[in-house]
Amino acid sequence: MEKVNANGLTEEEFLAKYQPGNYKRPSVTVDMMVLRMMQRLEGMEILLIQRKNHPYIDTWALPGGFVDIDESAYHAAARELQEETGLQDVYLEQLYTMSQPDRDPRMRVIDIAYIALLPYDKAVEAKAGDDAKDALWFQITYENHKIKLQNKEQNISIEYALIEKEFPNGVLKIKNYIPEQISEEALAFDHAQIILEGLMRLRNKVSYTDVAFNLVPREFTLPDLQKVYEVILGEELYKTNFRSKVKNKVVSLGKSGKPLSGNRKAALYQYCEE
């Protein structure tokens, strides 16, 4: 027997009478924190676009857009990533949901942020889409309770101090950091907070997962792989300890190549799951 509700309606009858317009509904967007290693592995870069229209006209922001009615957030992020970089089949992970009611001055917008990691052998030209004036790669400096995003060619510098705050969560007090603008330029919306969350996630996750292998090409040297880990962690690693950590995650290809982070040839390896 088909179930009915308190009004005697079956599910089919209930849905036929249902009026979605009786409830306020937010729009949903996705934003991508696209990261890659710099040319000599001396740091990481992030892709930013310059907004062409209000709100935050001329301000730098993460690439992204609205989720279409017939697609998931993940597919929207993958679509936007392909439109902005031309790339497919790269590492894409949901990072955070930004839901402060006043985060977008246009209307109620919930944003689902993603982090994308590009291998350093992928030649990705920053290009501005239809809703952007410009697109550039910015070097990231993440240390001493500060985040700095810099494009030296265009003399653009965006800097935030990281202010530590405590938030109650049940019986616990959770420490977190809030970015506070200290440069003349700032990022649009709450994108500084997204970038901070992404950097903290990556720094934490690299210690217990193989996520860093998404930043290297299919063939890599161990000195270059170690340099990638050091950039993410913000500290130098002992060569012996590092190689012990990754020995079961890599396989030698029986040939050598020149590391980007050094001058002497070294053996080439490939990632393999344990």
Strand count: 13
What name does the CATH topology of the largest domain carry?
A: Nucleoside Triphosphate Pyrophosphohydrolase
Residues in helices, as a percent range: 10-25%
In sequence order, what are the helices and strands, one letter per element? HEEEEHEEEEEEHEHHEE
- Tell me the domain tally: 2
Mean pLDDT level: 93
What is the CATH C level class of the largest domain, in words? Alpha Beta
Extract low-pLDDT stretches: none
Main beta sheet: strand number and arrangement? 10 strands, mixed
| Helical/strand content category | alpha+beta
Shape: globular
Query: What percentage of the residues does DSSP assign to strands (E)?
Result: 35-45%
Distance N to C terminus? 51 Å
Radius of gyration: 22 Å
Task: Give the name of the CATH superfamily of the largest domain.
Answer: Nucleoside Triphosphate Pyrophosphohydrolase
Which architecture of the largest domain does the CATH hierarchy give at level 2? Answer: Alpha-Beta Complex
The number of helical segments is 5
Account of the 3D structure:
It is a single chain. This protein is α+β, with helices and mostly antiparallel strands. It has 2 domains: 27-205, Nucleoside Triphosphate Pyrophosphohydrolase; 211-271, Arc Repressor Mutant, subunit A (Orthogonal Bundle). Helix content is 20%, strand content 36%. It is built from 5 helices and 13 strands. It has helices spanning 11-17, 73-85, 191-205, 222-233, 239-246; strands at residues 27-37, 44-51, 60-61, 64-66, 91-98, 109-117, 132-143, 146-151, 156-169, 172-181, 220-221, 250-257, 266-271. The strands form 2 sheets. Strands 1, 2, 3, 4, 5, 6, 7, 8, 9 and 10 form a 10-stranded mixed beta sheet that branches. Strands 11-13-12 form a 3-stranded antiparallel beta sheet. The longest helix is centred in the last third of the chain and has 15 residues, at 191-205. The protein is globular and about 75 Å long. The termini are far apart.
